[in-house]
Amino acid sequence: MNRDEILKMAQKENPKNDERELFIQTKGYSYGMIASSVMFVFLALVKTFRGEAIYDILAMYEVSMIALYIYKYKMEKKKIDLFCAICWGIATVINLYLFIWRR
User: Fold this and answer.
1) Mean pLDDT score, 46-51
2) Transmembrane segments in this chain: where (predicted)?
């Protein structure tokens, strides 16, 4: 068997889980999260200098942190991840409350 035949067999066995594609997608999500965090900080600073409340910006960022820690807890079952998810959840509820009712 040559290399091309082995590659074709591997692709037939595992068509949806190509390691390279998964790596690229995961790396893309990581860069997206970093870029989103930079934008959140920028928008929060602009709103702060304008004297505007930043509850909405904080709530959006906190939701992404909740998702991260829930997934980590689901996969690794570490209690610290569950604790972090709960803390971020509480912070999100507080910021949403302040955003909606404190204008």
Assistant:
1) 96
2) 29-47, 53-70, 82-101
The answer to whether 45 touches 17, Cβ cutoff 8 Å, is no
Whole-model pTM: value is: 0.72
Domain ranges for the chain, please list them: 51-103
Q: What amino acid is encoded at 53 in this protein?
A: A
Residues in Cβ contact with 66 at an 8 Å cutoff, skipping those fewer than 6 apart: 85, 88, 89, 92
Which of 20, 8, 58, 91 minimizes the C-alpha distance to 83? 91
First-to-last CA distance in the chain? 70
Task: Please compute the mean of the pLDDT values over residues 44-64 and round it to a whole number.
Answer: 95
With both helix axes pointing from N to C terminus, report the angle between 55-76 and 79-101 in degrees, rounded to the nearest 10: 160
